[in-house]
Here is the input.
Amino acid sequence: MKNENLIIFFGGVIMRQKIVVPEAPILVESTRSIGYSFEAALADIIDNSISAGAGNIYVNFQALPDPYVCIADDGCGMNLLELEKAMRYGSQSSTEKRSKKDLGRFGLGMKMASLSQCRRVTVISKKDGEINAAAWDLDYIASTQNWSLQLYSENEVKNYLGIEYLQYVNTGTVVVWQNFDRLKQESDNFSRAFNDRLVLTKKHVSLVFHRYLNGDVGVRNYIKIYFNGDEIHGIDPFLTDNPATQPLSEQQIRFDNEIITVKPYVLPLVSKLTAKERKARVENSELRLKQGFYIYRNKRLIVWGTWFRLIKQNELGKLAMVRVDIPNTLDSIWEIDIRKSKANLPYMIKKNLANIVLRSVEKSEKVYRYRGRKVKDDNIIHTWDVIQNRGKYEYKINRNMPILKNLEESMDEDQINLLESYLNLVEETFPFGDVYCRVAQNEMNLGKKSNNDTEEAFRLAENAVQQLMQIHGNVEQFIETMKIMEPFSNYPDVVTRIKEEYGNE
Here is the structure.
């Protein structure tokens, strides 16, 4: 139809109509700024592979000399007409009923996700023994000033990246990203920035698709994902393999003839984590695996680590995590965005979820509050607490030491988590056997103080005060509590000297 004025009759009103076609180069460049991160964009491509029934997904990449990211799968593949439809912007309405296993949303993801990161995306697909390819190239669109999709035959793409993979599968699809203009502009070291993005993306994919990767109950197609040949494994935020994790009863909320499944978990205290689990928490700290809701759409993680303002994040509730499974038919009420990385809690189910959350946090608080009974119950602030925990004795660093509290107040959340991991490592590796033997051999010398001990205690106190001053800590409170704090409680002369020299700081 030509873009000319037409006189039409609509809704009882005569009006003029003119078809206004968006300028292709301008619109495509604009949609690049929708807010995709590198990892969210690549996860969007994997969504398509899973929806296509893939069992194996290969993410291959290189930074130099010619940068590319290639995502290949053994899904159902596409013929030429299906490929053209998949490459069309808005290929499927968000209101259209989808397959229950479909991870798509707006019919925009693959194109917008890809071109948010690169200037050229090529899709090569094999079905019914035929291979077809199509590409969106932003520079080519700019040169033609039109929605110019480049189409290629099998012969024309025989030397393209990823084409060799399709020779070994009956059906499948390859998506290739090239020309990473934005990343080149953002960093003066492209290779390092590119590889850093892929390291984070690997972790992101391990978390977002962990139920598919780990063969979770209820996931129809168990998949394997490889990054440059290395198989990745799912990061389970709920630590379900840890015997100390407490899964609470699963509940269902019915809405609009659909079912939302809610299952809370109370995680173990850090002291109950294995060395491998603690290491994984530190290595994946940028994923921010915190307390709160973990929202899954068709078993794919969308949003995590938030209470949607139902309650405040708090120390006692930080062991509580609530898994919420929603079907893709409820996308609109959850306001799932194009990137599938944002959602809003629907008002109509707020009350139901609030009750579940409160019970979960209450359980978390009970776990947190029962941390064993201190063996010593005096007025001294001990550096080490001796804890009797269900018949066993444990030695724990006192987290209420004033100097430690001051340090935490000067740190952000990630730094505090790193410090906590280190303190747990110190506690786990305390050399009990060696200490026992040495104390037994030198027990006659215990408790004897020398002038050197007193000077060492003073240097220790003075250094602590000076460090507190540097981080603007509460020096006055520290000095005031020294008389009941180990080891200074044993050196009253040291406490007096520190008060005289630093009491007015």
User: Anything to note?
Assistant: The two ends are 82 Å apart (CA to CA). The mean pLDDT is 82.
